[in-house]
Design goal:
heterodimer; A: alpha/beta; Rossmann fold; seven-stranded mixed sheet; 11 strands; B: alpha+beta; 2 domains; two-stranded antiparallel sheet; 15 helices; elongated
Chain lengths: 235, 419
C-alpha cells in the first residue's frame, strides 16, 4: 500500500474576491521508504503540496490518502493527531524553540506522543542526538549552535518519534555546501537504516543528486516524475 | 503538564523586563484591591460597630412613640417595665432569653452648659459604666481619668466638649437640663474623665453620668429611654428578635414597646451591604485594568511567536495544548503578580490597621448623627488578601484566553513560511 496517494488534488487560495490556484489537479503516489525530491521554481506550488502532504492544510478538491486513510473528512484535531504520530518536519529555518535546549527541542516532539516513561524518553532522545552527531551538545540552546547543528537538531526532532514520513522544506537552503552534504548524508542514512519515507522540496541541485526520485512541479502541475532507477512518468 | 510549565517559565524569561512590567501591573492592582477592600471594610465595620455600641446594641427596646421623636430626646416615653412590673424585672426577663448575654440601660436627655461666650447644647447619657465598659470600646477612647461611679455626681466628657466649655478633668461644671416634668434643673458635677475619639458625637456632644444619678435628677426612678440587648453573636440577632417580640407581646405591651434589630435601627447598614457588593464589582474592574497590560503583552508575544506556534501545531500540538501553554504563562504572571500585590497590600493594611488614617480635617462638617469615626483603621485580614489573590489569578488567567485563542487559531502552515 502506498504511503501517500494524491488524486486530482487542487488547492485554490482566496485573495479577496480573486481565486488563486496553487495546485491544479495533482496525481502523485509516494511509496513507503522512498526518498523523494520535489523541485520547481518559486511559486510553482511546492510548499502548498508539502502543506497538503504534511496534513497542515486540506485540498480544495481531489482526494488525499495518507497510509490508506482519506483525509478530506478528518477534522483539525484528527489532522494534528496524524501529524503528531506519523509525520516529522524539517524546516528551512530550523524552527527550533529558542528557549529550549537541543535535548528539550527533541524531547518536545516525543513527549507529545505520551507513550514513553522518563527513562525511555531520555535514552531515546540521547540516542537520536548521538545518531545525528550532536553528542555533548544536548544542553546548548539554538543560539549557541551553528546552522548545521541546528538542522541536525531539527532532524533529530523529526526522527525521534519514528514517523512514517518526514517532510523537509528546503532543508539545506541556509547551510553551506559542506554542512548541506553532512545533513543530507544523515538523512540518507536514516532513510536506509530506518526505512523512513522522505519528501523534500528544494531548489538545490545537490539535494536532487541525493534523491531517489525527482518530482518537478510547474504552475501547480507535475511536469516531471522520475526515479533514479528509470521508472516514472514525464508529464 | 510539567513540561508545559517549564516551557512557560522559559518563555516568560525571554523578555524579562516585559514580564516584570506585566507582573508589576498585576501586583499594583491587586495591592490596590487589598488596600481598598481593607479600607472599605474598615470604614463599614467601624460604622456598624459604632452604630451598635452607641446607638442600637444588637437589639434595641424602646417605646414606639419615643422612636418617632427620638431626635428630640423626649422623657415622657420611657421604658419602665412590662405589664406593671419594674424595669429590673423587665431587664431580668430579657436577659433570660436564650442567646441574650446582657441588657444595657441608657437614659438619654438634652442638656446645656452656659459659658461666658455661648450656650453649649449637649446630650446627657445616663449609663451603667460597668456594662458600657464591657460592651463598647469606650475604654479605648478614655484618654484621661475614669468612667463615672454610681451614686456620685460625676461626668465624663469628650475632648472637644471640654474645650468648648473651657474645663478639664478634675474641674466642676454646672449642667442645666429639663426634668421629666418639664422643670429646669441645674446640677454641678465633677469631671472625672476625658474621652478622645474620632466620633464627633462622643467627642463634642455627649457627656456620660451614672444612670442612678440621671434617673434621680430627671425624676425618672426605675425608668430609662432605651434598653440595648447584646446577643452572644451578631448572627443570632434574627433568632433572638422574635423571642423578644413575643415576650413583649405576651405581656400585652406590643403596642407600647418595639424591638429593633441593629439593621432596622439604621438604614445605613443595608446600604453598607450594597456598598460592599458594588465595591466587589469595582475590584474586578481594577484587576481588569491590569489585564489590559497583560493581554497587550500576550498579544505581542503571539505576534512574535507566530512561527513557533505554527511549528508546535505542525508537530501535532492541538489547539487545546496551545491555549494551555498561554494560559499557564498568563497564570504564572497572575500568581506571581497577585501574590506580590496581596503581600504588599496585606502589609500596608497591617500597618495602617495599627497606625490608622486620620480624616478629621476632611470630615469637619459631617453631622454628629453620622457615627463615622474620623480615624479610619483598615481591616487587616488574611481573607482579604486571599480574596484579592484569587481574584487576581482568576481574572488574569481568564483574560489570557483572548491571546491564547488567537494563538490557537493560527494555522500550522505559518511554520512553513520563510523567516
Amino acid at each position: 500500500m502506498a504511503l501517500l496517494e494524491l488524486k486530482g488534488v487542487t488547492k485554490i487560495y482566496q485573495q479577496g474576491k480573486i481565486e488563486v490556484p496553487a495546485l491544479r489537479g495533482i496525481d502523485l503516489t509516494v511509496e513507503a521508504g522512498e526518498f523523494t525530491t520535489i523541485f520547481g521554481p518559486s511559486g510553482s506550488g511546492k510548499t502548498t503540496l508539502l502543506n497538503l502532504i504534511g496534513c497542515l492544510d486540506k485540498p480544495t478538491a481531489g482526494t488525499l490518502l495518507f497510509n490508506g486513510r482519506e483525509l478530506s473528512q478528518v477534522d483539525k484535531k484528527g489532522l494534528a493527531r496524524i501529524r503528531r504520530e506519523n509525520i516529522g518536519f524539517i524546516f528551512q529555518s530550523y524552527n527550533l524553540i529558542p528557549v529550549l535546549t537541543a535535548y528539550e527541542n527533541v524531547e518536545f516532539a516525543i513527549r507529545l506522543l505520551n507513550k514513553h516513561d522518563k527513562k525511555e524518553l531520555k535514552d531515546r532522545v540521547m540516542e537520536i542526538l548521538a545518531a545525528v552527531g550532536l553528542e555533548g551538545l544536548e544542553n546548548r540552546k539554538p543560539n549557541e549552535l551553528s546552522g548545521g547543528q541546528k538542522q541536525r537538531v531539527a532532524i533529530a526532532r523529526a526522527l525521534v518519534k519514528e514517523p512514517k514520513l518526514i517532510l523537509a522544506d528546503e532543508p539545506t537552503a541556509n547551510l553551506d555546501s559542506k554542512t548541506s552534504e553532512e545533513v543530507l548524508e544523515i538523512m540518507v542514512k536514516m532513510n536506509q537504516e530506518l526505512g523512513t519515507t522522505f519528501v523534500f522540496s528544494t531548489h538545490d541541485p545537490r539535494v536532487m543528486e541525493y534523491a531517489a526520485r525527482l518530482v518537478e512541479i510547474r504552475d501547480g502541475l507535475i511536469s516531471l516524475d522520475r526515479r533514479r532507477d528509470g521508472t516514472g512518468v514525464s508529464h | 503538564m510539567g513540561f508545559v510549565f517549564r516551557l512557560a517559565l522559559k518563555n516568560l524569561a525571554r523578555h524579562r523586563l516585559r514580564t516584570i512590567v506585566s507582573i508589576a501591573a498585576i501586583a499594583v492592582c491587586v495591592m490596590v484591591v487589598v488596600f481598598a477592600r481593607g479600607l472599605v471594610e474598615g470604614i463599614i465595620n467601624s460604622v456598624i460597630n459604632d452604630h451598635i455600641y452607641y446607638n442600637s446594641g444588637h437589639i434595641k427596646v424602646i417605646d414606639r412613640q419615643y422612636r418617632e421623636q427620638e431626635r428630640l430626646l423626649p422623657l415622657n416615653y420611657p421604658v419602665d417595665g412590662l405589664a406593671g412590673g419594674s424595669l429590673d424585672e423587665m431587664m431580668a426577663e430579657l436577659e433570660g432569653i436564650e442567646q441574650v448575654e446582657m441588657v444595657i440601660p441608657r437614659l438619654k436627655f438634652g442638656a446645656m452648659i452656659s459659658t461666658e461666650a455661648e450656650l453649649v447644647i449637649m446630650t446627657g447619657w445616663g449609663i451603667d459604666s460597668e456594662k458600657e465598659l464591657e460592651f463598647t470600646n469606650i475604654e479605648d477612647h478614655l484618654a484621661q481619668g475614669r468612667m463615672p461611679s454610681p451614686g456620685k455626681l460625676e461626668v465624663v466628657m469628650g475632648t472637644k466638649l471640654l474645650e468648648k466649655i473651657g474645663r478639664q478633668v478634675g474641674d466642676k461644671v454646672t449642667i442645666v437640663f429639663s426634668t421629666a416634668f418639664g422643670s429646669l434643673n441645674g446640677v454641678t458635677f465633677t469631671i472625672v474623665g476625658r474621652l478622645h475619639t474620632g466620633l464627633q458625637l462622643l467627642n463634642e456632644y455627649v457627656f456620660f453620668l451614672p444612670i442612678d444619678q440621671a434617673q434621680r435628677l430627671l425624676y425618672m426612678e426605675g425608668q430609662v429611654t432605651e434598653l440595648l440587648l447584646v446577643t452572644k453573636h451578631l448572627n443570632s440577632v434574627p433568632q433572638v428578635l422574635p423571642s423578644v417580640e413575643s415576650l413583649i407581646a405576651g405581656k400585652g405591651e406590643a403596642e407600647r414597646y418595639g424591638a429593633l434589630s441593629y439593621r432596622e435601627a439604621n438604614d445605613m447598614i443595608a446600604w453598607a451591604d450594597i456598598g460592599k457588593a458594588i465595591y466587589n464589582v469595582i475590584y474586578v474592574f481594577l484587576i481588569l485594568l491590569a489585564c489590559i497590560v497583560v493581554i497587550n503583552t500576550m498579544l505581542m508575544i503571539v505576534q512574535e511567536r507566530t512561527r513557533e506556534i505554527g511549528t508546535m501545531s505542525a508537530l501535532g500540538v492541538e489547539r487545546r495544548g496551545i491555549v494551555q501553554l498561554f494560559l499557564v504563562e498568563g497564570g504564572i504572571m497572575g500568581i506571581v503578580g497577585s501574590f506580590i500585590g496581596a503581600l504588599l497590600g496585606g502589609g500596608l493594611n497591617a500597618y495602617l490597621a495599627q497606625a490608622g488614617l486620620d480624616f478629621t480635617a476632611d470630615l469637619e462638617g459631617v453631622s454628629a448623627e453620622v457615627l463615622f469615626d474620623t480615624m479610619v483603621y483598615p481591616e487587616s485580614s488574611w481573607t482579604n488578601a486571599v480574596f484579592a489573590f484569587i481574584l487576581g489569578v482568576v481574572i488574569v488567567t481568564l483574560s489570557c484566553l483572548i491571546p491564547a485563542r488567537r494563538a490557537a487559531n493560527l494555522e500550522p502552515t505559518v511554520a512553513m513560511r520563510d523567516a
